[in-house]
Amino acid sequence: MPGRLTGKVALITGATGGIGSATADLFAREGACLVIADLDAEALRALAVRLEAKGADVLAARLDVSSSESWDEAIELTRRRFGRLDVLVNVAGIVDWPGIEGTTRESWDRVIAVNQTGTWLGMKAAMPLLRASGNASIVNTSSVLGLVGSGAAAAYQASKGAVRLLTKTAAVEYATQGVRVNSVHPGVIATPMIQDLLDEQGDGQPDIVRTPMRRAGRPAEIAPAMLFLAGDESSFVTGTELVVDGGLTAY
Ligand code: NAP
C-alpha cells in the first residue's frame, strides 16, 4: 500500500535531533525519499544507516543552515541525486535561555542566524526546486515561544516569532505557485535541546511542564503534525500555525 508521502522527496534539517529524527522516521515509513541534513556528519551516517535498514532511499547532506553556501551545496546534491524536491522541513534550531539583559550580542546573533536567517535561507535556496515540483510544501518549525512570551530566551523568542510571520508571508507569496508554507509550534518536548532544563527541575513535576496534560511531549508526537502539513491531506492549508503543545497555550 502506498504511503502518505510516496513519490515525494523531502529534505529535513536538524534531522539527527529529537524532533528531526522522529520526523525522518515517520516520513520514511510513509514512503518519502529523504534528504537528511544536519551539522554532525557522524550522526547523519548513523541515521542514514537506520533509515536505509527500513528500506528508505536516503541522501545524507552535511548542512549549516546559517550559511547560504552550505544551502546551495545541499540543494545541488539533492537535485543531482533525486532530480526534484517536494517537501522542505526546517527543523534545525538552537536555544539560549537568558532574557533581555542577560543575552550577549554574540548569542543573539547566533540564535537569529540559525533559527531565523536559516529558515529564510532554506526557503530561498529550495524554492526553485519546490516550484518546479508543482505540488510542494514547506513546514517551518517555530514554537509556542513564537506565540506567547516566557520572560526568558529573548533571542529564541524573537527568532521563533519571526519564523511564524516569515511563514505567513511566504505562504501568501507562493500560494498560486504550487508551494504551501506552514509552521508547527511545539510546546515542551523532551529532546536533547531542553534535557538540561528538564533535569534541572529535579524530581516530580518540572515547573516548565505547566501544560494541562502535566507532561512533556515526545518527538514522535510532533512528527505527525509535520506529516500532515507535508502531505497532500493538507492541500488547502497554507499560512497556518499548527500548535502541538498539550494545551500549554490554551490557558
Ligand atoms: P535538538 O534535538 O537539539 O535538535 C536540533 C538539531 O538542529 C540538532 O541536530 C542540531 O545539531 C541541529 N542544528 C543546530 N544548529 C544547526 C545548524 N546551524 N545547521 C544545521 N543544523 C543545526 O532539538 P529539538 O528539540 O529536536 O528541536 C528541533 C526544533 O524544534 C528546533 O527548531 C526547536 O527550536 C524547535 N522546538 C523545540 C521544542 C522543545 O521543547 N524541544 C519546543 C518548541 C520548538 P547539533 O546537535 O549537532 O548541534
Q: Helix and strand layout, with pairings?
A:
Layout: E1 9-13, H1 18-29, E2 33-38, H2 41-53, E3 58-62, H3 68-82, E4 87-90, H4 105-133, E5 136-141, H5 154-173, E6 179-186, H6 192-200, H7 223-230, E7 241-244
Parallel strand pairs: 1-2, 1-4, 2-3, 4-5, 5-6, 6-7
Helix pairs in contact: 1-7, 3-4, 4-5
Bound molecules: NADP nicotinamide-adenine-dinucleotide phosphate.
Structural description of this entry:
InterPro entries: KR_dom, NAD(P)-bd_dom_sf, SDR_fam. Belongs to the short-chain dehydrogenases/reductases (SDR) family. This is 3alpha(Or 20beta)-hydroxysteroid dehydrogenase. The chain has about 250 residues and is an alpha/beta fold. The chain has one domain: NAD(P)-binding Rossmann-like Domain (Rossmann fold, 3-Layer(aba) Sandwich). Helix content is about 40%, strand content about 15%. It has seven helices and seven strands. Strands 3-2-1-4-5-6-7 form a seven-stranded parallel beta sheet, with helices on both faces. Helix 5 links the parallel strand 5 and strand 6. Helix 1 crosses helix 7, helix 3 runs parallel beside helix 4 and helix 4 runs parallel beside helix 5.
Q: How would you name the CATH homologous superfamily? A: NAD(P)-binding Rossmann-like Domain
Structural class per helix/strand content? Answer: alpha/beta
CATH class: Alpha Beta
CATH topology: Rossmann fold
| N to C succession of SSEs | EHEHEHEHEHEHHE
Number of domains: 1
CATH architecture: 3-Layer(aba) Sandwich
What are the low-pLDDT stretches, counting only 5+ consecutive residues below 50?
none
Number of E strands: 7
> Taking Cα atoms only, what radius of gyration do you get, to the nearest Å?
17 Å
| Tally of helical runs | 7
Can you list the ligands bound to this structure?
A: NADP nicotinamide-adenine-dinucleotide phosphate
* Largest beta-sheet characterization: 7 strands, parallel
Shape: globular
Instruction: Give the end-to-end Cα distance, rounded to a whole number of Å.
Output: 41 Å
Strand order of the largest sheet: 3-2-1-4-5-6-7
% residues in beta strands: 15-25%
The proportion of residues forming helix, as a percent range, comes to 40-55%
Protein name: 3alpha(Or 20beta)-hydroxysteroid dehydrogenase
Keywords: NAD, Oxidoreductase
Pfam families: adh_short_C2 (PF13561)
InterPro entries: KR_dom (IPR057326), NAD(P)-bd_dom_sf (IPR036291), SDR_fam (IPR002347)
